[in-house]
Automatic annotation (TrEMBL), chains A, B:
It is a multi-pass membrane protein. It comes from Polarella glacialis (Dinoflagellate). The lineage of its organism: Eukaryota, Sar, Alveolata, Dinophyceae, Suessiales. It is found in: Membrane. One of its GO terms (molecular function) is monoatomic ion channel activity. It comes from the Eukaryota. Belongs to the archaeal/bacterial/fungal opsin family. This is Rhodopsin. The keyword Flavoprotein does not apply.
Length: 238, 238
């Protein structure tokens, strides 16, 4: 995540002014994730001790300190609206549409994260499912708006290469977003204990790398391709 | 706060020279806040321990180390005058007016913070109210000056988009500023103990994000819009 941030920001001079705000925000998303993954790492290390007695097998024990999964939700509350905004900005829609889409998708995605948290910290399965269902309402709205809106925006890209990258961003968005509700369900279907916690953490971490760093690399590729088209004069910047 | 700092500074080349000092100070405000929030986080972590015995429910206990709320007041003493100055600079008033407003509002706001602190560290409710009232005198002067001054400045902005952003900055200033005296009152109305401390900390933190990061994003948007107007030649820089 930290390396992705540095890559995106070092690329800023290589894209035209039109795409610099998108690329700046792309790097901010992975920076915020870097910070929270360090907090998650430290919280995890403090919650467990790994040790062996007399050089024998290693065993894992709880230290009594809690593993705080709240860091993920604070991270998502900040980064999910921002990564939707970076996608909207790189599409370079008319300004009024950019502003209205950013507000609608930004607020809906923040609501989605906020509604997910009360269920995540619950042991009671029916309460977990209740918040999962509530959170899925803004989730479906955002994913549907993106899938439809990006299909339309794809057809308006200034070159075949830009169109194919925008189409890849569309599939990656749907794929990475749909990972989260399934990972959330790991504990809702009755799995519990260390194995469930491990599957959940591995699942969320993989989804985060896809949705932030890999997705960010696509945003950069779209910005670079469109900058090249603009600079070659095939399209005048408007 | 840290991400906001980086965003503002990376945007420096994208605005004209006229707005770079405002944007630099906007980033300094959020940088100072980042530093103090790290100190507040550490002080908070050292004041409480969260642990469970034998894997049961988690309990919170005081460690005996004090939670030092003084960091907030040192932060405000530095950032509040600065964020008033960033607002004055982005309005691009005649130079004499810029200097005189910066001194008047800067000193009044520093006085406001200094008068609030003796009450904040008091348990005695009547003493808390005494300092609250004293602090409200410069507070009212600053908020009134801003509300009136910004209404006038709004009508002089070079484009409808800049005027609507300046108007948003005006409402956000009044809204975020008015949050602080109410949060201060949480403990003055007799609430005490951990719940009151939690409400106070959550309230101040939310107000800070509004008054520094969100407000800063508005300052950036005003600077970007006015730069675009200047560069398109619709208005010559004066």
């Amino acid at each position: 995540m930290g390396s992705a941030t540095i890559f995106f920001w070092l690329q800023l001079p290589n894209v035209t002014k039109n795409y610099r705000t998108a690329l700046t925000i792309t790097g901010i998303v992975t920076l915020i994730a870097t910070y929270h993954y360090i907090r998650i790492f430290n919280s995890w290390s403090e919650a467990f001790t790994v040790a062996s007695k007399d050089g024998g097998d290693y065993t894992v024990q709880l230290t009594g300190a809690p593993f705080n999964d709240g860091y993920r939700y604070v991270d998502w509350l900040l980064t999910v609206p921002l990564l939707l905004i970076e996608l909207i900005l790189v599409m370079k829609l008319p300004q009024a549409e950019t502003v209205s889409l950013s507000w609608k998708l930004g607020l809906a995605s923040a609501l989605m994260v906020a509604l997910g948290y009360p269920g995540e910290i619950q042991e009671d399965l029916s309460v977990r499912w209740f918040w999962w269902c509530l959170s899925m309402i803004p989730f479906c709205y955002v994913v549907f708006t993106l899938a439809v809106g990006l299909a339309e925006a794809t057809s308006k890209q200034p070159s075949p290469a830009a169109a194919s990258l925008a189409s890849a961003a569309r599939y990656l968005t749907v794929l990475s977003w749909c990972t989260y509700p399934f990972v959330y369900m790991v504990k809702s279907v009755g799995l519990a204990g260390p194995a469930a916690t491990m599957y959940e953490q591995v699942g969320y971490s993989l989804a985060d790398v896809l949705a932030k760093a890999v997705f960010g690399a696509l945003i950069w590729a779209i910005a670079a391709e469109k900058s090249a088209v603009e600079e070659s004069g095939k399209l005048l910047p408007n």
